[in-house]
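Fold this complex.
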Amino acid sequence: MTLEKAIEALRRELGPQNVITAPEELICYSYDATADLPEGRPDVVVTPENTEQVVKVVKIARQFRLPIYPRGAGTNLSGGTVPLKGGIVLATVKMNRILEIDPTNLTATVQPGVIIQELNNAVAPYGLIYPPDPGTVATATMGGSVAECSGGLRGLKYGVTRNYVMGLEVVLANGEVLRCGGKTVKNVTGYDLVRLFTGSEGTLGIITEIIVRLIPAPPARETMLAGFSRLADAGNAVTQIIEHKVIPATLEIMDRVTVEVVESYARIGLPTDVAALLLIEVDGLPEVVKAEANTVKRIVAQNNGWIKTAEDEIQRENLLTARRAALPALARVKPTTILEDATVPRSKVTDMLLALEEIAKKYNLLIGTFGHAGDGNLHPTILADARDEEEMKRVRAAVEEIFRVAISLGGTLTGEHGIGVAKKRFLPWEMGETGVWVLKQIKKALDPDNLLNPGKIVDLAQEERS
Amino acid sequence: MNPLNGLGAVEEEIIRCMKCGNCQAVCPIYQELKLESSVARGKIRLAEALFKGEILATPALSERFDLCLTCLACESICPSGVKVSDIILATRRELARRKGLPWIKRALFSTLQHPRILRRGAKIAARLQDLVFRRLDSDKMQPRFPLGLERRRIFPALAPQSLLEQVEEKYSVPKPLARVALFAGCLTNYVFPGVGLATLYLLRQHRVEVVVPRSQHCCGSPLIYGGAADVVKEMARSHVALFSGFKVDAILTLCGTCGEAFHHFYPRLLQDAPGYGEKAEELAQKTMDIARFLYQLPLDRNLLKPLELTATYHQPCHLGRGLGVVQEPIELIKSVPGVRYVPLQNPARCCGNAGSFSLTHYPLSYSILTHKLKDIAATGAEVVLTGCPACRMQLLDGLSQERMPQKVWHTVELLARACGFSK
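Structure:
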């Protein structure tokens, strides 16, 4: 059998300890963190220890025509790591060394299996931070978060993963090793391949080394919680804060449903008669922080809101708890939690929030919305029960409508979770046929045999059939 | 929902896992093995597969479910609040029912189940232990032969006389502030009787009347965690009958795991047993860890004399996350004059013992322990305090093998010393 020969070759090249075939293990690599998606069982899981071994896996996969699905911690939310067509799951968990921290050039070089939080812990003694902080910062790997271009709470001021990736080492589908970018701030040599691979969801190459930019940790911060009895007031406050040239590090919103659920779960004394809460954190030099916080307070008051300021670290933690509890609290309401990330231009956040309320009513669903209001990235969270087929039909219809509205407001299908399998069919809505054609040409150029994470973002097989 | 009845009872819990993978951040076994099957998310998927018949009850599947410390770290971080340990216990129970337990576990469980055999066995073992173990110290030993045990492992010696052999059944005090019954637990009874003596001393100093029921035996935890919940019912029943017979304010435990058996498991085991359900519930409410009891009593600071030492505290999983006893031991430690308390970086991380896990998976158990040892070394403490005899065994082993000078005491031993107890 071809598969047996392939597994034998993998064992020979990687050592038996890095080749997993027990059914009891394979079943645990058939999913990721995405709700309501089909699973796929891999034929084998490999855990290479270095780039050379990754190259060997690619060569064996080519020889035996087996697909490869790169996988970090499997915490992604778009089905990006699910092995839909069998084949090889390549888990980067054993390539987890921080290779260098360079405080002079403000860079770090890491292997893909390093956990984001571990990098932050390692650079903290230098007074530096790696700003991208997705909700999975304590579990997600650097490789996975670069491949998915993850975002997080600090996106508004500090940007997302792509703003911090400076250089990459990538194993291509033909088994060659590509190095692009580097430690220089400026680099216009050739096409911007670093950006191409960042967010490519494992479909164009396997990331084996990453050079990231670090920044000095802000010396001061002020954290505030503001409440509004009208959603529009909260939305206007968000836009006005930024119009007044204040770019908070964190500008998060929670809608009424979320606030109620959080309060009934965490009992932290949140007022449940609000239409929305904003969590706002400004950071930087102490004088700047003070001035910016004053602007924020003035604008909240002008928009009929109240505001509380954290006086110390304990109070700050309390305010942050409200936001952190959003997903856990919502997730406990019903067994199935569908977390979306439709994103709109900041000026349309209010419109989007109102549309979400309408959608919840129309489809008779419980939707709690929280998210990164400052960058227009909202997380409408639909609470359902996967066993209730009728309800799940309404969920899927609601999700489609959420995407439709987001795009009609000039937004995007996904701010930070990626396309994967979950949003593949909606791709033409945003990119048009031309856009999808360009994606396919890039995919075909770099992976003509469709070996790398097939069936994600674009579907080459489908095209061949039609 | 009763996980002790098997998988069907935890279906709802299985569905609630949303596969976010947050458990990876805290699972000590995942951090060593980096295998998806070793973390809660993977195990829950496997439990589902077994429940739905996608997978067979193979020895390989049992091995995966043995790889859990039931340290509850995943539960404490789970956004959906999934009761992971219920799923683990239910699956172990199901696997044991379908394919039986290995002989070594059957033998161990059968001994624990029969108080008389356990008592005699322990007595004989205490006499003969020097034949198979080499003494490194008056109270530390290492296996002379492999015996199925790791030869490098250092065990505490069995005490020549068990706690129950050394103490009276009742200690009356004039005008008692409270009346309690003491549950010793096997490890305290046979290995660390000093902890029991220190407890009795402290309680009497605090004018607490104590009953130490003679016919108490193993709480049954090893069987509950090992998938043999059916036979634990008898053990639960006899303890419920025994302890319900005393008019006391509290039943005190010296170990979080024993405490959990009384507090969380007996009511579940006996919920349908006529005449026992309510009593078990009542007993559960009265069961309290010694640290919480002393803290609430409260500890009489006038009795405490200064002890010049630096101490740290390791939080046992079942005591902290299981019973919620987190702050009380620390407050007690800090109340002793002269004691410099230096917290561990990560006091609640499992030490890796997890009962029989350390016997069946010694190398893995030891790698988990090394994180704790590093944490201890960094504090500069002379004494590590903890509230569980199994953690204590584990720490003693690691500290001895790494030639680290720290001593390990139960929290009550520190307090008893401060009150003038010398042993």
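The CA atoms of residues 51 and 208 of chain A lie 6 Å apart.
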